[in-house]
Amino acid sequence: MDLPADTSRSMLSSYDLLPDKYMNITSLIKRLPKAELHLHIEGTLEPELMMALSKRNNVTLPFSTVDEIKAAYDFSDLQSFLDLYHIGTQVLKTEQDFYDMTWAYLERVAKDNVKHVELFTDTQTHTDRGVPTETVIQGIDRALKDGEAQLGISGVQILCFLRHLSEAEAEKALDAALPYKDQIRAVGLASSEMGHPPSKFKNVFARARKEGLVAVAHAGEEGPPEYIHEALDLLNVVRIDHGVRCLEDPKLVARLVQDQVPLTVCPLSNIALCVFDSMEQHNFKQLLEAGLCVTINSDDPAYFGGYMNDNYLQTQSALNLSAADMIKVTCNAFNAAFMDETLRNTHLETIAQLEREFG
Ligand code: ADE
Ligand code: ZN
Q1: Is residue 135 part of a domain?
Q2: What is the pTM of this model?
Q3: What is the rounded distance in angstroms from the CA atom of residue 294 to the CA atom of residue 257?
Q4: Lowest CB count within 10 Å: 138, 150, 189, 201, which one?
């Protein structure tokens, strides 16, 4: 098919119908294999599934319709979101519930060409309601195994401590999870950031690392750059979740660039939780231009208006990122992933092939 000489890529509309030699940035993004490194599995609970599980388990929600749930998705900050997120998690009771939620997420992101996922699970949210750690971890694990076999998506779980609770409670969560250590790759730190610095969790992270788990932590989402320093120095994390406030501290930026510490940035989340006023004002491009190892992720996609491709596409278009930028952040994610080397290289080779095709 010949295109008129003056048809630029940005003017095309039905990209998916075009042969590959006319691939534009939208179709490139859709075709890129992706790794999602920052995803709270409980944040994938879509309103329809939330309602269905509330009926299945006889859990009364403060909403009677899917529309009422959706109407509540209007957040002013992280805490206002977490309050609603915790209400949603109450419908999860059985191993099958955790399986169904995880499977729904995997089926959804298969459409976005996601090939590897690293899921945070806050077991404390569930054990506090009497749901055993085993129920949570085994239900998610079963879905991850089916995802690998049926969808070709590899996956790992990250046990995420809740920072608004005490370190003693995190120690208990670690103890309860250690019998399932084979199903967990790392530990993380999430929930209300302000007033709960990484230093609060120094001992439990040290013990988790001794047990062979790697460490990541949310830092610099709402909290100050100092929390990022603490996560690196005191928790020995290998990745920072969010980290967008690092730009306020040039010395920290230099350190993160020097060590190429991956930042798992979640652009739509940052807009939904008012970290930035709009996507056009997001600092993602500045992070990239500073030489930081940034990646794109969805955080809590059921609540923040989009899964992986939505995050990629909206970030690219609002900040006018180039194809090379999108390829770079996609490679960053695979390079930062806790995954099998052969599989990593297979996906990196597919990306390199797409880069050549794009020209
Ligand atoms: N738990 C779920 N989503 C979160 C986020 N964006 N930040 C901190 N904790 C979370
Ligand atoms: Zn998060």
Answers
A1: yes
A2: 0.94
A3: 10
A4: 150
pLDDT digits (tens, 9 = 90+) for 79-105: 999 999 999 999 999 999 999 999 999
Query: Of residues 46, 193, 221, 222, which has the active-site annotation?
Result: 221
- 144-193, pLDDT tens digit by residue? 999 999 999 999 999 999 999 999 999 999 999 999 999 999 999 999 99
| 189 belongs to a structural domain | yes
**Is 304 a member of any domain?**
yes
149/136 Cα distance (integer angstroms):
20
> C-alpha distances in angstroms, 81 versus 19, 28, 76, 86, 299?
42, 32, 8, 9, 12
- Residue whose Cα lies nearest atom 10 of ligand 1: it is 191
Give per-residue pLDDT as tens, 264-311.
Answer: 999 999 999 999 999 999 999 999 999 999 999 999 999 999 999 999
Which ligand is the nearest neighbour of the Cα of 44? Answer: 1
Give the single-character DSSP code of 148. Answer: I
- CATH code at 82? 3.20.20.140
Q: Which DSSP letter does residue 299 get?
A: B
Looking at 231-351, which runs of residues are DSSP E strands? 239-242, 262-265, 293-296
Give residue 21's pLDDT.
58
Q: Considering the domain boundaries, does residue 4 fall inside one? A: no
Q: How are strands ordered across the β-sheet holding 262-265?
A: 34-40, 114-121, 154-162, 184-190, 214-219, 239-242, 262-265, 293-296
Q: Is 169 a catalytic residue?
A: no
Residue 133, CA distances (Å) to 121, 137, 174 in order: 10, 6, 10
- Which of the listed residues 300, 303, 304, 311 should we mutate to test ligand 1's pocket, taking the one with most ligand atoms within 8 A of CB? 300
Tens digit of each residue's pLDDT (9 = 90 or more) over 120-157? 999 999 999 999 999 999 999 999 999 999 999 999 99
Nearest CA to 330 among 11, 3, 29? 29
Residue ranges making up the domain that contains 164: 14-358
- Locate 221 and state its tokens: 């989402």
Q: Of the candidates 271, 323, 276, 318, which has an alpha carbon nearest to the alpha carbon of residue 299?
A: 271
- Confidence (pLDDT) at 18: 52
